[in-house]
Amino acid sequence: MRQHYKLLLPGTILAFAILAAPLALAQSSGNFASQVSTTQCVVNTVGGTPNSGGLSGGKTTPLLDTYIKTPNSQFTTLLITPSLVTGLFTNTEVTQDMESSAVSAAVKVAVTLDGNPVAPATTATPSIIYDQRFQQLSANTFQGFLSCFLNNNCSIDLVESTLAAHSFNFVAPNVGGGTHRLQVSWTFECTDNTGANVPCTQVYTANTAGACAGPGSVTVTQVKAFTQSGGVTIGP
Q1: Is residue 61 a contact partner of residue 32, using CB atoms and an 8 Å limit?
Q2: Of 20, 23, 217, 236, which has the fewest beta carbons less than 10 angstroms from its beta carbon?
Q3: Model confidence at 50: pLDDT above 60
Q4: What is the mean pLDDT of residues 92-111?
Q5: Proportion of the chain above pLDDT 90, given as a percent
Q6: Distance CA 114, CA 175 (A)
Q7: Residue 13 placed within a domain
């Protein structure tokens, strides 16, 4: 039987999977092929320059949606490793009228098998945080700047942009034989000065936060987890 990986993703992510069309047949040999997207996450470093890359506001964006066929065995375990470049942008500004400003931005990744969260994710916490930042700026010295205070032009502005690469292992133990649907996705979450969830920004503006993603990969490996070697333990 000819075996190969097939990868179908929307433009921001590289992923790996094994397919024997039309269904995937995972093997422990580790053989795979890949399809690579070159879309790059970019956060601005110059005022007025927009962020770019895998931007989606607060929407959930699929990385991988495929089917994997596994053999009949109570020891069959899937090791699923999404790796992703993430970018965070935060901009806090204070004035004499608003002496404290706080925003946050996060990139979260979710993996489900047959619609169920894959450990260590749970139904209560279905996503794993790959990157998150909370930024707060406070100032109570405006009264000391008499000249700018009288002209109402005092301000302090703090801006941060960060790019980083992350990976995380999701473990699906004892999946059993049959055909399983594997889905991997990411979501951006941003909050404003009140702590309320707001759409992530794509441009350089005061008191906003944003995120981007890409490139990335998803690797799926079938393994045997025998009890005499420790098996798979999932605890609090």
Answers
A1: no
A2: 236
A3: no
A4: 89
A5: 22
A6: 10
A7: no
Tell whether 9 is covered by a domain: no
In the numeric block, which tokens belong to residue 17?
């999977």
Across the range 10-36, mean pLDDT stands at 37
DSSP state of 49: P
Establish if 236 belongs to a structural domain: no
Q: Tell me: the pLDDT tens digits for 108-122?
A: 999 999 999 999 999
By the 10 Å C-beta count (0-12 exposed, 13-18 middle, 19+ buried), 95 is classed as middle
For residue 1, count other CB atoms closer than 10 A to its CB: 4
Distance CA 233, CA 95 (A): 52
Nearest to 21 by CA among 52, 67, 79: 67
Q: Which residue has tokens 């707060």?
A: 136
Q: Which of 138, 133, 191 is nearest to 163 (CA)?
A: 133
Whether residue 5 lies inside any domain: the answer is no
Identify the domain containing residue 33 by its residue range: 24-229
